[in-house]
Design brief:
alpha+beta, OB fold (Dihydrolipoamide Acetyltransferase, E2P), 2 domains, 5 strands, about 40% helix
């Protein structure tokens, strides 16, 4: 009985191993390996040919966003606490928390508005050339294979 079971297991293993074999030339040259992605299966893919940094031309004093955001946040925090029936102590705490949150938000907004952008030139697989303007590169470099998704260049 054990030899019969062993024989069936060996035949099953050989059958499964035969199904799992691959061609020795798989991914040879320009196949669909990670080093050489398949270029025929993607209509919105291409290679980055050039990246140009574009200065925003906008400037503001360094703490303007934080100061204005802090003022707006403090007023908003105080008013929200006042309208919801908070005590004087709660109104002051809410104003301080609003000022801190407003300063962080104002600083982030200022950095986004005054930051540089990038023109990314992509030679698409079908021969077209696209120029996409975006704020961050997200790891995209020249000569990388990318995909253009919703007007943004991402690494494929």
């Amino acid at each position: 009985m054990k030899s019969r079971l062993l024989c069936i297991a060996a035949i099953g293993t050989l059958a499964l191993a035969g199904c799992a074999t691959t061609s020795p030339n798989q991914n040879y040259g320009y196949g669909s390996s990670p080093a050489y992605p398949s270029r025929t299966s993607c209509a919105d893919c291409g290679i980055v040919t050039r990246i140009d940094a574009i200065a925003s031309g906008r400037s503001a004093p360094s703490a303007t966003g934080a100061i204005l955001g802090g003022i707006v946040g403090a007023v908003a925090g105080h008013e929200i606490s006042d309208k919801t029936g908070g005590s004087k102590g709660n109104q002051n705490i809410s104003a301080a928390a609003g000022a801190a949150a407003g300063a962080v938000a104002g600083n982030a907004i200022q950095n986004r508005v005054t930051s540089d952008t990038y023109n990314i030139h992509v030679r698409m697989d079908d021969g077209r050339t696209l120029v996409v303007n975006q704020r961050d590169l997200g790891g995209v470099r020249e000569n990388t294979y990318v995909r253009v998704v919703n007007g943004k260049v991402v690494i494929r």
